[in-house]
Amino acid sequence: MANYIVSGSDRLGNFLGGRGIQAWRLPILIRHRAIMVARAGVAVASLSDATPLRNNDVVIVADNPAAAAMMELQREADRNARDIAFVPGNTPYEQNMRGLMVDRPDTALFQHPQVNALREFIGALSGSAAILQPIRSILISSHANPEGLLYMPLSTYAVAHITYEDLEAAVRNGSLRISQQALEPRPHDRGGQPIPARVLIRGCRIGNATVYMRKLKEAFGNQIPVIAPKHFHVVARQTRPLGHVEYMAYGFSLARPVAFRNQAEAIAAFAAAGFSRIDGAPVPPSAWGRWIPRNIAANNLTSASVISPITNARDSVPGEFRVRQRTFLANGGSMALATDPGSDTARKHAVRDDLVAQFPRYRSTHDFPEYVRYGHASMDEFMDSWTWRFRYDAARHLLHYNATRVEYVVIQAITDPASNRLLLNFYPSGSTGSRIVQLDEADVRFFQTV
């Protein structure tokens, strides 16, 4: 038995939630007398999660509930287990994701006014009063990118993104470790087999950052598979029939030291880059002319004609041509150098060597080198992807530097190559429309599993 002495006043559900007992377990454990409250030596009758606790009450929790209690916990897991979804943030993407989670079957949207960061959510899984059903899997959604960033706070008051280095720290301090006990008992499938727990990520292209994904899995305790999209993840509100839809879009990306001069040069570069569709076939050369606009100096919205599996009719879905002027360092950089190397090529080599010497993440021995995050195979390739500018201060023997480049992304909805039918998941909100699930987390065309 574990005896907890109450200090002050509280309610039983909230008190035990802070001690690792999820809200859904409480009525079952109370029924089987695995939870009791003693007040001045007398048992308190008719317990519930709302039972008021007084100062010096003793809450008694059985270490090993009776077999009948364990059987009822298992039955509850088999009947009512849910994917617990955490969607912080308030951009249109996240607002639509929350709507999709409400419409998605067997899914419970986690909502708590004091939990808006990943660490606090992971902690809440173990005992929050907001965990009203047994946990089948964990679903986490935010903006993301393939450079290894999830755009949500790691902890309350932290910056709104999680880096690889943040995950390294979480591995060391255990702050993101998922309690295996919180995931028990496992619900069973129709064949009577336990359903393995999974962490399902929804966020654009983060599945391509495999090293980041592995570190995230390690931070979670290295026991549960982590699954994330390889492509842009798009969520929208469907009006006829009413519901929410999610689908994926290709994100064909190129980075260049200087901007394309015109549309023809951009089309030629994308056509030569060897991009392929989900069936492995090359993107048809004719597609680039439809997807790349005449004005390549700015972001452009495009559209594509597809067959909607929701209505079985032709529909138009949005695409985009993105242009980003990127600066390497917001405030520039500098390095000590006895003499000016004399040429930009030599200066660039000096900067490369200094970055490698000063910062471990630029070294090839790093688990997730900076140049890999930017989409390159080597440090030299990374350096060549920028236009560099230098200024040598002879009086102070300092080489000042910075760099710029232009990044282009062609975003187009993924359809079945043979039929041009949009591949999606649709979850109706009302009585009209049928659920459609075409994006299976086991499908390696769409998802990465680590």
Describe the structure.
With 450 residues, this protein is an alpha+beta fold. The chain has three domains: 2-75, no CATH class; 81-229, Rossmann fold (3-Layer(aba) Sandwich), CATH 3.40.50; 250-419, no CATH class. Helices cover 24% and strands 29% of the residues. The chain contains twelve helices and 23 strands. The protein has helices at 12-17, 26-31, 67-80, 92-103, 118-124, 164-173, 210-219, 263-272, 285-291, 344-358, 370-373, 379-384, and strands at 2-5, 10-11, 35-39, 42-43, 52-53, 58-61, 82-86, 107-109, 135-141, 143-145, 149-151, 199-202, 226-229, 232-238, 243-256, 300-308, 313-327, 333-336, 387-393, 398-413, 424-428, 436-437, 447-449. The strands form five sheets. Strands 14, 15, 16, 17, 18, 19, 20, 21 and 22 form a nine-stranded antiparallel β-sheet that branches. Strands 8-7-9-12-13-23 form a six-stranded mixed β-sheet, sandwiched between helices. Strands 1-6-3-4 form a four-stranded antiparallel β-sheet. Strand 7 (82-86), helix 4 (92-103) and strand 8 form a beta-alpha-beta unit. The longest helix has 15 residues, at 344-358. The radius of gyration is 27 Å and the shape is globular. The relative contact order is 0.11.
